[in-house]
Amino acid sequence: MDQVQVFNNEALSNIYSQIYKMKTPIYSDFNRFISNIMADTTYIYRFPCQLNSTMREQASSLTPFPKVHFMMPSFSPLIPGTSHYKGISISEITQQMFRPINSLCNANLSGGKYLFGTAIYRGRLTSQEVDEQIFEINCKKNW
After folding, report:
1. Is the pTM of this model over 0.85?
2. Can you say how many angstroms the Cα of residue 130 is from the centroid of all Cα atoms in its chain?
3. For the chain, which domains are there?
4. Alpha carbon distance 141, 74 (integer Å)
5. Assign residue 17 a region: left if phi > 0, alpha if psi is -120 to 50, beta otherwise?
6. Is 103 helix (H, G, I), strand (E, B) or coil?
7. Which end of the chain is more exposed for a tag (fewer CB within 10 A), N or C?
8. How many other β-carbons are positioned within 10 Å of the β-carbon of residue 73?
9. Is the separation of the CB atoms in 83 and 130 below 8 Å?
10. Cα gap 19→45, rounded to integer Å
11. What pLDDT digit, counting tens, does each position of 92-135 carry?
């Protein structure tokens, strides 16, 4: 099964203008950003951990839907500067994942349904913290 991570320049441009306050980002900025995101989403192959899922598990979840292989990535936290990362809670990171500005492709998902979602967290946290946040999001979204 093929998987495609969808990025588009308009979404990336919105992130750079609204979050990073750059009026005219260049393609090398986009390329660096995308390569960092791809490295973050594939780190589960390089650093095994009990909280990690794999791309194979993602594909297995989509097996009943062979034509559904386009992944719409979202990334959190999107904050200018790295010194602010320490003050962000797991709850805030989880909420940011579902904000339209954090989406790396433009699609109107308001009122829509997600067929499948994977949240990949990095850092010092427990599976209980992750489960609580995902449960909270599920309750708020009323899926």
Report:
1. no
2. 14
3. 4-141 (3.40.50.1440)
4. 16
5. alpha
6. strand
7. C
8. 19
9. no
10. 30
11. 888 888 888 888 888 776 666 666 677 777 777 887 888 888 88
